[in-house]
Amino acid sequence: MPKIVTELPGPKSREYLAQSQEYEPVCLGSQAPVVWQEAHGCTIIDVDGNEFLDWCSGVLVTNVGHCHPDYVRPVKEQCDRLFNCYEFLTPQRARLAEKVIEISPSWLDKVFFVTTGSDATEAAIRIARRYTGKWEVLAFHGAFHGRTMGAASAGGSLGVKAGYGPMVPGFIHSPFPYCYRCPLGQESCETCGFKCLEFIDWVISKESTGQLGAVITEPYQGGAGSIIPPPGWFEKLDQWRCEKGLLFILDEVQSSFGRTGKMFAMEHYGIQPDLVTLGKGLGSGVPCSAVLGRSEVMDALPPGSMGSTNGGNPLSCQAALAAIDIIQRESLVENSARLGEVMRQAFVEMQGKYEQLGDVRGQGLVLGLEIVKDRASKEADRERARRIVEECMQRGLVLIAPIGMYGNVLRVAPPLVISEAEVQESLGIFEEALGVACA
How far apart are CA 153 and CA 144, in angstroms? Predict the structure, then answer.
């Protein structure tokens, strides 16, 4: 449980923060001034000895918790044997490939390992273009697929594009169903009849050159503010792309390995994507990502046409094997679903008390809380959102900086090993911080 022993930030933290300010660029995110020293389970300990509960998981990475002993031990053992061998096969890579396919939906039967989420996005786009012979890809407003040029071009927000000149050509963007703030002006997602899906055909008819071959989307839009599409939207999208003969790329970099209360978020929907990108929770700390897909699609690239210096290295593969084992053995998918619902219901109750908590949305242990000036206007209140993060930190609860298209959404994403006692403690801290910020 939280234990604050100094003012925040403490004296040692202030020294490191000043050092960072002098030698590191300002392009890094503006996070709460917590200088991490170590972490275990859901507890963060800073350089001054203050202890915090974690609601960020290193941005949806440490699904198995921080420094789980059954994760640390095999990773340490691997460090004594082998770090890197380029594309040469290792037992760890072969076993991880088999394990990932074993836990994946039946139609996905090949996997290619890389290092980061951006790597996986780039690889999936390359595979899709090679397989379809077409170079256009439909993506969505608000999407985040990474920061490399191809991944940023697929993204649908200004933040990853502004100031970098022309993006990679071939990406067409259409509105995503952000029902709390419908981009098409609809009053209710229950009555709109999926106008955003109908709008796709209009966009394509005006922007495409006739070379559309694939569609890419996230199961929920993380960086845009944990935006969950309404029931039935994904099934309709999958039906539409099948009718058009398009390849379906699903970006599960942050949504897989139990985060949403399912092993893969696609299991919430009746869809069958052709390519799925994985990352974050796959390695649960040691960087590891992958593209999962159908054999006929994955094998479109001939031998030697795509490789990775660090992708599938034995250290990251050993870490991923350990993480998957912990997720399965400790029933962390089920824990995510159960405690995620406990948290969601608690936030809904808080929403009834505070009109500044405009919207509550999420699946499993990833939730988005949209902070507004009042419920009637829905005007985004990014200053209050940042105040809540600050008040939480002062009480021993760490969140990442507010996210979303307007910078006013709080992302709640604790490690999947969080206990019910830690859930209740952290909810109490959050409600106290919310009350202070909304007074």
Answer: 9
Number of DSSP helices (H) and strands (E) in the chain, helices first = 13, 14
In 3-state terms, what secondary structure has residue 225? coil
Nearest residue to 145 via CA among 223, 257, 258 = 223
pLDDT digits (tens, 9 = 90+) for 378-405: 999 999 999 999 999 999 999 999 999 9
In the chain, the domains with their CATH numbers are 11-64+331-438 (3.90.1150.10), 70-329 (3.40.640.10)
Q: How far apart are CA 197 and CA 439, in angstroms?
A: 41
152 Cβ contact list (under 8 Å, min separation 6): 145, 146, 160, 161, 164, 167
> 128: how many CB neighbours lie within 10 A of its CB?
25
Please, how many CA atoms are within 13 Å of residue 160, restricted to the half-sphere of its CB?
A: 24
Answering whether pTM is above 0.90, one says: yes
Tens-digit pLDDT profile for residues 319-354: 999 999 999 999 999 999 999 999 999 999 999 999
Pairing of strands 43-46, 36-40: antiparallel
Tens digits of per-residue pLDDT, 114-169? Answer: 999 999 999 999 999 999 999 999 999 999 999 999 999 999 998 889 899 999 99
| Gap between the terminal Cα atoms of the chain | 26
* Long-range pairs for 69-74: beta carbons < 8 A, 24 or more residues apart: 70/322, 70/325, 70/326, 71/284, 71/285, 71/319, 71/322, 71/323, 71/326, 74/318, 74/319, 74/321, 74/322
* Per-residue b or e along 342-380, where b marks 16 or more CB atoms closer than 10 Å to that residue's CB: ebbebbeebbeebebbbbbbbbbbbbbbbbbbeeeeeeb
Strands (E) in 207-356, as ranges, are 212-217, 247-252, 275-278, 289-293
